[in-house]
Design a protein that fits this description.
By secondary structure, the chain is α+β, with helices and mostly antiparallel strands. The protein has helices at 3-16, 39-51, 80-90, 98-115, 129-133, 138-150, 154-161; strands at 17-24, 27-36, 57-61, 72-77. It has a single domain, classed as Homing endonucleases (Endonuclease I-creI, Roll), CATH 3.10.28. The protein is 50% helix and 18% strand. Helix 3 runs antiparallel to helix 4 and helix 4 (98-115) packs antiparallel against helix 6. It is globular, with a radius of gyration of 17 Å.
Length: 164
């Protein structure tokens, strides 16, 4: 992969991307996404990621009030193996989100080590009933919480910075 293109991608994700883990009920789901009004930039980012072997979903979010807002063009990487690969590529190139990538790398490595990876890039399911009872390790939960803190903004972030 061309180092210059990887550096461009890392800069784009540093400024416009979101690197996090969402909580859906009892499930923790890693997700990397980016949204902007430039379709050309998103299309090029998707090409760069696909060239690096990372399947990426692109879509357009149509605004309700096109007179006041442009449509948002988005990309998403959601499979565990693909996010791990992306984190491995971006951690050395990133500036402002280097810690995000390190935490995401720790989370995905732990999940993949415990569950294994299917050919699709998703985690294997089934197997050991003990793992089903305790689906997340303390370290995986810590990763979720740290990424949540790193992604706080506005009043929430301000309140956390003043907490003892």
């Amino acid at each position: 992969m061309d180092e210059r293109r990887l550096a461009w991608m890392a800069g784009l994700l540093d400024g416009e991307g979101s690197i996090g883990i969402s909580r859906c009920g009892k499930s923790l789901k890693p997700l990397v996404q980016m949204s902007m009004t430039s379709r050309e930039t998103i299309d090029e980012a998707i090409r760069v990621l696909k060239h690096a072997g990372i399947p990426t979903v692109g879509y357009t979010y149509q605004e309700r009030d096109p007179a006041n807002h442009q449509d948002a063009h988005c990309l998403r990487v959601a499979r565990m193996g693909d996010i791990r690969r992306l984190a491995q590529l971006m951690i050395g190139q990133s500036t402002t989100k280097q810690r995000h990538w390190a935490v995401m790398l720790a989370f995905t490595a732990s999940r993949i080590e415990r569950w294994g990876l299917a050919e699709t890039g998703r985690l294997h399911r089934g197997g050991d009933p003990q793992r089903k009872q305790h689906p997340y390790t303390d370290e995986e939960i810590r990763c979720y919480e740290e990424l949540r803190q790193l992604n706080l903004r506005g009043a929430e972030r301000k309140a956390m910075s003043h907490a003892p």
